[in-house]
Give the backbone structure.
Amino acid sequence: MKLITDLRSDTVTKPTPAMLEAMFAAKVGDDVYGEDPTINELEAKAAAMFGKEAGIFCPSGTMTNQIAIKALTEPLTEVICDRTAHIYQYEGGGISFNSLASVALVDGVRGKMTPEQVESYIRPLNNIHFPETRLVALENTCNKGGGSYYNLAEIAAISEVCKRHNLPLHLDGARVFNALAASGDSALDYGKYFDSISICLSKGLGAPVGSLLLGSKELIQKALRIRKVLGGGWRQAGYLAAACIYALDNHVERLQEDHVKAKVLSDVLENSNYVDSVLPVETNIVIFKLNQRYTDAAFVKALANEGIIAASFGPQMVRFVTHIDVTDEMLEHTVEVLKSLNEQVVAV
Ligand SMILES: *Cc1c(COP(=O)(O)O)cnc(C)c1O
């Protein structure tokens, strides 16, 4: 069988046999009645990890982000985030649809805003011309920033600005475990700085489905109602929660391996004659720009011919994401193919 290496995203992972066993063995109940013991266990476990009172299990990170924004804003208010933020770029314009709120887009560096930038976007109070600033949202790691991350000191400094202006701080932590693995910061400390935390177990941690929103009991009570309205009140989803518990217990420690693999790929790309530049690799994402030897479409096709699936990430841009299903053998094969492409003479 031909070796297929899927580097499009860390969402493509499939449950391991041991994870599947944990799923089969799950005790379940109707979660709309609050009776699924495995979901209740997962929500309590994740909340405790991040120093929060409560959690709510949802089908996607988009839903957890959108619920948090809805719960923490009102119509005619404004959310401050980086221009490249997933909540703005990749959630279908959901902030305007779900929350009737406006967005202030900050030009950060590789997805990261400074405290000064955040503060400069806070609107003056009591001026009817402006939307009211109501929420600040960070992304960690930053997807479009090439997996860049905020460390705890940077988060603390932005949190200080938010507290001074009485603004809640939301974390889109779809890849927060990668940020923690790279920075060495503790999840528990995050609870002090963020009012709401969205985490995905379906990315680097390898669960097939599942995200959680974590926050105060009051916030999660509100979130329950919003999740229901969005059609996200689910029933015996404990089979999925069991995969997420398994992922938290077994797949966090290994994330560093994905980061090492991403670095190997970026080192090869740095030395390839078809690459213009590579964003610095800090975690499991490699974003690079091709020179005129290849268009992104032609490059993605050349890789596909060798069983490597990658995603075009804009004109001349390509993204690789490493994850639990990328084996050493797949990495070696990808390195060989990337090196061999140096010898191809390509007419564009
Ligand atoms: C993947 C991702 C999400 C959530 O995506 P879903 O596919 O809805 O689970 C949110 N934020 C970031 C930064 C992401 O990369």
Observations:
- The radius of gyration is 21 Å.
